Amino acid sequence: MSAVAPAGGIRVPVRHAMRIRLSRLLPEGGWQWAAVAIAGLVLAPLLALAWTALQGGQAGLWPHIARYVLPPAALNTVLLLAGVGVLVVAIGTGAAWLVTAYDFRGRRVLAWALLLPLAVPTYIVAFAYLDLLHPLGPVQGLLRELLGHASPRDFRLPDIRGLAGCIVLLGFVLYPYVYLTTRAMFMTQAASLLEAARTLGASPSAVFGRVALPLARPAIAVGAALALMEALNDIGASEFLGVQTMTVAVYTTWVTRADLPGAAQIALSMLAIVVALLALERHARRRQRYAAGTRPRPMRARRLHGAGALAALALGALPVLVGFVVPAAYLAWETVERLAGAGVSQRLLASAGNTVMVALAATVATVGAGLVLAWALRQAQGRRRPAGATLAVRLASLGYAVPGTVLAIGLLLPLAWFDAGANAVRGVFGLEPRLLLMGSAAALVLAYLTRFLAIAAGGIESGFARIAPSLDQAAASLGHAPGAILRRVHLPLLRPALAASALLVFVDAMKELPATLLLRPLGFETLATWLYAEASRGTYEEGAVAALLIVLAGLLPVVLLARTGVRYGRERMA
Fold this sequence. Notes:
Elements: E1 3-4, E2 12-13, H1 14-25, H2 30-54, H3 61-101, E3 102-103, H4 107-113, H5 122-132, H6 138-147, H7 163-174, H8 176-188, H9 191-199, H10 204-233, H11 236-240, H12 246-255, H13 260-284, E4 302-303, H14 306-341, H15 346-382, H16 387-396, H17 398-401, H18 404-428, H19 441-465, H20 469-477, H21 482-493, H22 495-511, H23 514-519, H24 527-537, H25 541-573
Parallel strand pairs: 3-4
Antiparallel strand pairs: 1-2
Helix pairs in contact: 2-13, 2-15, 2-16, 2-18, 3-7, 3-8, 3-10, 3-12, 3-14, 5-14, 8-10, 9-10, 10-13, 12-13, 13-18, 14-25, 15-16, 15-19, 15-22, 18-19, 19-22, 22-25, 24-25
């Protein structure tokens, strides 16, 4: 191969010279600067939100909101979070202990089936039960027929609409967050601790309450915080069920009253709740420590027979039935009836195409940004200066903790600034002004990227952790620049982590409703917004088709989680 001779007289192969020039295109800290830029992109909506809130609302409108809208919305939100928190902790912790501490027929199926409600967004569960439990719906109709009543005036169940119904439905959908983290903690607890408690005469309930439960408290807090942030992000279920939460108040203040500063002020109040939830989760595990040593022997499940085994199976299956089987079966039935009768409209097919298109674009952008963040962190750790990159990764992860409605309100001002600057440049060249980002599909992609970047970055960072640093050192010693090391060494090894991250981001983007409602282009429908519009009009036929498609997509990451959990359980028992 031909060579070049630098000033020092040393002959350098052309390939190495090109590699050196390409490496200089990105400075030594270029990856860290790219990570900082991405973190700034995530932080911009939050800063813009504060700026917008300081502008003050419309004259005379904010006092009305502060007096008549915000107090009841805040009270409903606090009561909703408190009720959902109690329910998800009770169901998630109880289910985790049931399938970990006891062995019965059907236990292995139940262990992964308890994850299935994760596939059903909260607004879809509310949509399904509103029709099922309607006074003219199938459930109450069957009950009246069995009891000999002819009219809903003679017999009807209590209305599911209201705060209590919302708490129950959200609790039975969001408990898997607690179940996942708590079961992992129960599976890693040393059997010697539990056996020591039994030898001291403790009953099974005392072993659970005085030994296992305190050790699992940090995991319970993490799962509960995730579930509560999902409940705070909800807008569809709360609105369908007639509960005026702060999320609904933000949406109505902006869309109905056209008061962006007022909506931003309510959104800042929601951020305060998010910060409180995160602080509570940190406080719950402040004393958590890890001890290095041999892997502890996992506890042995107690075998149940007869009525006890049947009761355990029924008790564990109840959350699965309420949170997944009943709504999924209803959606499948309604979809079959719709397809057999009138088929699917072209508008619904267009909505499905829009959903896939935007979700794919958001997935590519989000996974790419997550890869940059994770690689910048690995590069910084290799130079023992990880503080800046670590801070950038943590700041970029804030978007997942911010409700979609809050994030959308915060994005409105940066999008408007960008369009104003772009139109000023277009005016110099004599071009007509137009909206480039505001009200475009690109705005949705940016919102999804900001919201779900933590998922991609976290998954890819875990993938990097499984790759030995010696590979980086060997590639660097051969003259490869960081970009070449990433492309030729790490990307082939990161394929499973990249695929898993892309799957999670894609499904979450398909399900996202609050940010889509606020930022979508005029006349642009996704499956989530189509379902929202159908439920708002009280029509359920085509809404069921859209909901079933979202649920089927949501099953993909649940299957992935279930396979991971089964593999981990086998490793623990080995």
